[in-house]
Amino acid sequence: MTTPAPPFGRALCAMITPFDEAGALDLDGAQALADHLVTEGCDGLVLSGTTGESPTTTDAEKAALVTAVREAVGERASVVAGVGTFDTRHTVELTLAAEKAGADGVLVVSPYYSRPPQDALEAHFREIADASGLPVMLYDIPGRTGTRIEPETMIRLAEHPRIVAVKDCSYDLLGTQKVLNRTELAYYAGCDEHILALYAVGAAGYVSTVANVVPAQLRAILDMFEAGDTPVSARLQQRATPLIEAMMSAGLPGTVTAKALLHALGLPAGPVRAPLRPAGREAADGLLAEYERLVAA
């Protein structure tokens, strides 16, 4: 039995969007960071997602970011553009713009705030998938959107030829395995603490915020599992846990913590846009300490 190749690679980074000190989009910085991440082991970059501060970037900035990153990484990595909004028409417009800009696929989050029922949610995703030739990664993150893409809805959506993948932040391992068992959807762990757990039950890989700062260390979790060394893979996942917790579960958004660490490491990041606020000195020092412990292990 041959496992099909993941549609966007295995090790994907949910890349931050670099800004300059004045808060403007830093395309040179985005290209430098994208090149660094790919060199360090990422075989896909997801732009303008949650970590990429998509609610605060304009449509023109989103398209320019795709164009710049595509130019920087060439064919070395896939480029997936976040296009999801709470407006179906606007999401279609962003999808077409991403296609024109050179994206390999689009990430489409459930419409937030309006909380559509499952039949409306399904229609929303189908309309977007019908609008372009790009493959679609659904983004299931009910903790932010207020709406779950229920497993039965996911199973129906899998019948669409361009709906090929899921970024899974559902925290529902049973539901995920149900969909994996009944579809060919490529599942990507959207929560870093689940990288190995989901990969071990058939996921395609991950879309990681933490990969902004430790791309090689997270890639090694998958590589060791693929090599048949599950105990080492498990130890690598466990070693990453303190940094994952510090970045994702210590009270600050992942965008804030990732940018704080990238700044400390001398990599492109810049400020966050309001309403987010930068990490304080104590938080930044704690993040750096956890980072140094992981890379020294």
From TrEMBL:
Subcellular location: Cytoplasm
PANTHER family: 4-HYDROXY-2-OXOGLUTARATE ALDOLASE, MITOCHONDRIAL, DIHYDRODIPICOLINATE SYNTHASE
Pfam family membership, one: DHDPS
SUPFAM superfamilies (UniProt xref): Aldolase
Alphabetical UniProt keywords: Amino-acid biosynthesis, Cytoplasm, Diaminopimelate biosynthesis, Lyase, Lysine biosynthesis, Schiff base
Description of how the protein assembles with itself and partners: Homotetramer; dimer of dimers.
Pathway recorded for this protein: Amino-acid biosynthesis; L-lysine biosynthesis via DAP pathway; (S)-tetrahydrodipicolinate from L-aspartate: step 3/4
Protein name: 4-hydroxy-tetrahydrodipicolinate synthase
Annotated site residues (Part of a proton relay during catalysis) in this chain: T50, Y113
Catalysed reactions, as listed in the record: L-aspartate 4-semialdehyde + pyruvate = (2S,4S)-4-hydroxy-2,3,4,5-tetrahydrodipicolinate + H2O + H(+)
Active site annotation, chain numbering: Y139, K167
Similarity comment: family membership: Belongs to the DapA family.
EC number, as in UniProt: 4.3.3.7
Species in which this protein is naturally found: Streptomyces doebereineriae
Lipid metabolism recorded as keyword: no
Top EC category: lyase
Record PROSITE patterns: DHDPS_1, DHDPS_2
InterPro entries: Aldolase_TIM, DapA, DapA-like, Schiff_base-form_aldolases_AS, Schiff_base-form_aldolases_CS
One function term, GO molecular function aspect: 4-hydroxy-tetrahydrodipicolinate synthase activity
Binding-site residues, pyruvate: T51, V207
Protein function: Catalyzes the condensation of (S)-aspartate-beta-semialdehyde [(S)-ASA] and pyruvate to 4-hydroxy-tetrahydrodipicolinate (HTPA).
